[in-house]
Amino acid sequence: MTPAQVVAGVREGRRRAIGRAISMAESRGPGGREVMRALHPRAGRAVCVGITGSPGSGKSTLAAALVRHLRAGGRTVAIVTVDPTSPFTHGAVLGDRLRMVDHFLDEGVFIRSMATRGHLGGLAEATGDAVTILDAAGFDVVLIETVGAGQNEVEVQALTQTVMLVLMPGSGDSIQAIKAGVMEIPDVIVINKCDRPGADILAGDVESALHLVPSDGWVPPVVLTQALAGEGVEEAWAAVERHHADLRATGRADARARDGMRRHLRSLVVERVVRDLDARSDSGEIQRLADRVVAREIDPARAVDTILGLPRPEEP
Ligand SMILES: Nc1nc2c(ncn2[C@@H]2O[C@H](COP(=O)(O)OP(=O)(O)OP(=O)(O)O)[C@@H](O)[C@H]2O)c(=O)[nH]1
Ligand SMILES: [Mg+2]
Questions:
Q1: Which of 144, 153, 147 is nearest to 184 (CA)?
Q2: Which pTM value belongs to this model?
């Protein structure tokens, strides 16, 4: 498929073209660039929601349950799972969950696991491109599942209108969440596995922790779910919709999008610089500079300037 055929296919919502477009964007060749340039103006319609939380809290199960709820309401859904360590298994797990609820072969559902290469390995770029492609393909809702670990969450927040944080009882989640300051990121908090003991206590802990977080007017609702049984899922989605309505009503939707894009661009720059550096490292260029620093011909700051291509006016 040529880039133009891929773009046309994505715009018609063809699955093969969508998959191809994401792969092209991931491989970062000139074809991928061309596809993204053509699709960017075509996106911006989808509702994008992040689902974060610690491993095993039930993010994929909740995503599958949300798919069922949204499909019942006639909406199409795409899911991107992002996991820097094992992109493969996580996508497979989600696939299993969806197969369980009979949506795996549904044309209105698309699942993709991102093959990122770990820390700064292009997570922001790959995820951002996938969201744009799925949005341009016409999916009503795009869900991004990611293990909630620092930078991941910040990236997801930058790309979405709403972030759901999934916690579960009996994992020490509440204490960790409060300590890590992650409470500042979520817009909706889901206490999943509420069939297990301790869900009410966790909900109480989270509610009190939320009082300590500076608020811009929106206090994240805490919703109890049992994702495996589909309980509370409707309420969880209703909370997401309330958050959207609040963003629009208070005029914060634009500010959030602009702020998110600024942070996203920053991540893209960092990713590209690191990638470029790695390539030049492979070519031996960085080693040659390091050798000159070791030989005391230049100082480290001068080597860095050279790497970044900055002129040093005070030196010849
Ligand atoms: N008891 C109970 N178990 C649940 C519930 N929801 C999910 N689980 C189970 O919790 C386990 C983890 O669920 P996943 O949906 O894979 O969790 P996840 O957060 O996506 O996990 P990672 O992607 O590995 O981080 C699975 O065995 C689920 O069946 C629930 O409401 N109650
Ligand atoms: Mg998962």
A1: 153
A2: 0.89
